[in-house]
Amino acid sequence: MVRGIPWDQLPNRYEAKKVVVKKVEEADAEPHKFDFAKDSVEVARRAAFGAITGSITGACFGLVEVLRDPGAMSGKKATGTKKVLRFTYLFAGFFGTYHAARKVLQMAVPQDKLTNIVTAATLTISPLLAVGSLRPLIPYSVMLVAIDAFNELSSD
């Protein structure tokens, strides 16, 4: 008995329902009507979320890098602090930009979620390829995007 209801009288939430499959063109038939005030706030919220999540990831990654480097661990706190802050800023900037790009693409060019994620990831990871000192961050950036993509695609 659950909350005074017998087991055989509980409602069945998992009944077989007929699934209606829509094409992408049918689902997003109406173009987005832009309202600069609301849209800019929404993009800023997504960018802030990405920056906060990325900064936590970057700080953890920076701490691991400091622990790996004996020079940063030997007495000079400034060296270790600079390294942690560098990774914190880089990951915060990357993931904040990724989330902002994903939201802008979602509003400007309505597509399915996977196409939107891949496009935003390509736009934000490609600058990391261009700068040689940022190339070691690419695997971690791809993993951040993969975790976000898994979360986004499994939420349906």
Overall description:
The structure is a single chain. The protein has helices at 24-27, 36-68, 70-73, 77-108, 113-130, 138-154. By secondary structure, the protein is mostly helical. The chain has one domain (31-154). Helix 2 runs antiparallel to helix 4 (77-108), helix 4 packs across helix 5 (113-130) and helix 5 runs antiparallel to helix 6. The longest helix has 33 residues, at 36-68. It is extended, with a radius of gyration of 22 Å.
Structural class: mainly alpha
Largest sheet: none
Question: End-to-end span in angstroms?
Answer: 31 Å
What is the beta-strand fraction? under 5%
Overall 3D form: extended
Low-confidence stretches: none
How many strands? 0
Number of helices: 6
**Integer-rounded radius of gyration:** 22 Å
Domain count: the total is: 1
Proportion of helical residues:
55-70%
Mean pLDDT: 83
Order of helices and strands: HHHHHH
Write out key terms for the chains shown.
156 residues, mainly alpha, 69% helix, membrane, transmembrane helix, Mitochondrial import inner membrane translocase subunit TIM22, transmembrane
SSE arrangement:
Blueprint: H1 24-27, H2 36-68, H3 70-73, H4 77-108, H5 113-130, H6 138-154
Helix pairs in contact: 2-4, 4-5, 5-6
Quick overview of this protein structure:
With 156 residues, the protein is an all-alpha fold. The chain has helices spanning 24-27, 36-68, 70-73, 77-108, 113-130, 138-154. 69% of the residues lie in helices and 0% in strands.
